């Protein structure tokens, strides 16, 4: 808000200078009389010529042809030359000969513009002829109009192959082109725009394009943005209130008899699996918030679990050094894999649902669900993630995060922190990684930071701090609409929520009575996440408005 | 408790918890072997890992009055030694901020 008021006052100051020469009554005079100077600026610093032309265009597109004409006459600024108007109309009506004639009026670059524009127009002409089944004429266009341009030979070959299409429908499918009846001419016009100076032909719907950009920027800067409000008013800047963020405990799940160490939502968002130091795993229904199954079989604490891609199977592992595979529907233990000689700390399925990786203090194993060892690596792995597309495995151990290709199992890259890493979490798009680090442990015993890494560029984009981590693994994750938030557990019994983009701490949620060590955000409900704590409970968090929707809608204008 | 975040050491000889094999220190980092605990020989270190400290208390030892804290294994909570906070004798001041691990509670592992 502050910079805006500052801006306004400074432009006021600027505009006071020039306008002091000709009094305010003079302003309308200079607008109506004499030839307008296209370089005159508006009081806020925009080019008057440009602005008026956009207004004319906007009026026209809204159907106010008369007013548009009136504005052109009053301001003396024309939207475009008659030749350009004619050019546009001819393209939209498919009058290709006339279009070719008018091309010279468009001020095109003779090397980088004109031939390409010609090519695009003749390509459209060719496709339209083919669509109308005028095969011979199409062939003439191909041979004597497209080929001599010597542009994009590869495309010419492709176009030639369309000659083989059996029908208009077949052609449209092969060329992924929607035909004369569709929007193909409009699309062509937009594609030509990049060769034509915007001063000659104003890009279509320019004013509305800029308004959309403004609303998008406002949405991006809106801290609590949640995409619920799909309609934007142009009257005021867009802003969401806090109510879209899960900040209230909706349910407390307390069937575990010891600390809850790991929670994870099923991919369809209908169930939550929790692993506990009581050696059990509970699968909770998120409709009834009651346990559906309690999986008993581990002989020691359960440190992690992972849903298969189709949510029909669950892998669990822990301090008894085994990995167990369960059928979710029947709660039957299908297999126990005893390959690890240490505590198994992390698990992840490959997208094929037939292979999985498991990591321990010394090894990383790739296995099939039938128990075959497919590959092994010898380095410590504390935490794992697999990208959504299944191409990349992210494995963390010590101060190092390795990115391993799941196609050829080569190491793609490696990122390194200066201090030990306790947990990681990968974004849905696989481009960003949250890395929870212990920062300079000697000097600041509980000062911790989560780093947001851009994996492609190999750099830290943001840092989140404030939470407490001392002896235990405290997990973090992305969540919310468009994964706009970052949440983490904390040893001070709270859940921390930061804004991903600007790094600010939005909320700390109280409720648990002991350290919160695991958090998970629902993959399907942006207004729900869960936290697991050493107080033996899991809390499901939701938005306050779910309780009293009427009150809120009554308050909003 | 949560899942204990453990660090790992590499070296010829690593001293670990006799109970749960959690890493504490390397043999190379022993400052002195000439110490005695409740259960016999003990070693002095400037730093050990994967431990947490208990409450501070005053203890009278062979070498005088000291303020110390017990140190516990982060994984299994066994008391494995102590940390010197204050040594009241000028000659014993060098021990302040350093750690003692009792030999009988340790296990040697090579990595």
Automatic annotation (TrEMBL), chain A:
PROSITE patterns: CTLH, LISH, WD_REPEATS_1, WD_REPEATS_2, WD_REPEATS_REGION. GO terms for cellular component: GID complex. WD repeats lie at residues 253-294, 295-336, 509-541. SUPFAM superfamilies: WD40 repeat-like (SSF50978). Pfam families: LisH_WDR26, TPR1-like_2nd, WD40. Residues 80-137 form the CTLH domain. Signal peptide: none annotated. Residues 8-21 have a biased composition (Polar residues). Coiled coil: none annotated. One of its GO terms (biological process) is proteasome-mediated ubiquitin-dependent protein catabolic process. This is WD repeat-containing protein 26. It comes from Entomortierella parvispora. The lineage of its organism: Eukaryota, Fungi, Fungi incertae sedis, Mucoromycota, Mortierellomycotina.
From TrEMBL, chain B:
Residues 13-110 form the Yippee domain. GO terms for molecular function: metal ion binding. Pfam families: Yippee-Mis18. Keywords: Metal-binding, Zinc. InterPro entries: Yippee, Yippee/Mis18/Cereblon, Yippee_fam. The keyword Zinc applies. It comes from the Eukaryota. PANTHER family: PROTEIN YIPPEE-LIKE CG15309-RELATED (PTHR13848). Belongs to the yippee family. This is Protein yippee-like. It comes from Entomortierella parvispora.
